[in-house]
Structure formats: C-alpha cells, structure tokens
Design goal:
alpha/beta; 3-stranded parallel beta sheet; about 20% strand; elongated; RHH_8; Ribbon_hlx_hlx; CopG family transcriptional regulator
Length: about 140
C-alpha cells in the first residue's frame, strides 16, 4: 500500500458542520475581534488541536491497541491484485484518510479486502463502498 501525497488529488481536510450556542459563538467572535484568532475556523481548529493534544497519550495507546495505520493510506489496484494472487485478505484499519483507487472494481475489493475500519474518511467509489458495506465497521 502506498501513501497518498498531498497535491495528488487527496484533500488535506474534510468539511464538517457544527451547531454552537449563541453565547459560545459570541465568545468566539469576541476573541476574533480582539485579534486572538484570525477567524472562527482558526479558533475551532485550535480548540480541536488542543483537545487532541490533551488526550494524545490515550489516543496513541488506542492506535496501538487497535493496530491502526495513522495518517493517509492509499490502496491501489495493484496492491489489491497482489493480495488476491497471494491468497491473502487485506485488513484496512486507518485513523485518518483511507482511499481505494478509482479503478478498483467491486469484485476485486470483495476478493481482497476482509474488513474496513476507518476513523476519519474513507474515499472509494460508490460501487466499492456498496460491495464492502457488510465488511465496514
């Protein structure tokens, strides 16, 4: 399996939507106006990073315990064909971004992927996602 490099089609972030109370939002706007943060997004990213860092040891322990690949992982057609030819099944366990190449067929995915567990984002064609639905945690 090869890593995905930024700039080769893989986005480096995922858009999320959150709901905040008016008072919390007001506090964020106050801190932005006073120059502590450049905008609301900067504040929210910083708050998330601070919380992730606060729980970093617990997260590292969970990554080891669950045998997760950390970061960006890309599975090519060649990776999956090699696994199939060797008679082995791939366990996709990723914390971050896991992507399956667009030229991977649903049949190849089912023949070579035993399990998919992604904490973050899984990028795959709709057909491959459907083929792996019963193997996705």
């Amino acid at each position: 399996m090869s890593e995905v490099s930024r700039g080769r089609g893989a986005p480096d972030s995922e858009k999320i939507t959150i709901n905040l109370g008016y008072v919390d939002l007001g506090h964020i706007d106050l801190l932005v106006q006073d120059g502590f943060y450049s905008n609301r997004t900067d504040f929210i990213r910083t708050a998330i990073r601070n919380q992730v860092e606060r729980h970093a040891e617990v997260a590292r322990s969970a990554v080891r315990r669950r045998s997760l690949d950390l970061g960006l992982r890309h599975y090519t057609r060649a990776d999956l064909e090699a696994a199939r030819e060797e008679g082995r099944m791939i366990e996709i366990r990723v914390l971050g971004l896991a992507s399956i190449a667009p030229d991977v067929t649903p049949e190849l995915a089912r023949a070579s992927i035993a399990h998919v567990s992604v904490l973050g984002v899984l990028q795959a064609s709709a057909a491959v996602r459907a083929a792996l639905a019963d193997r996705t945690a």
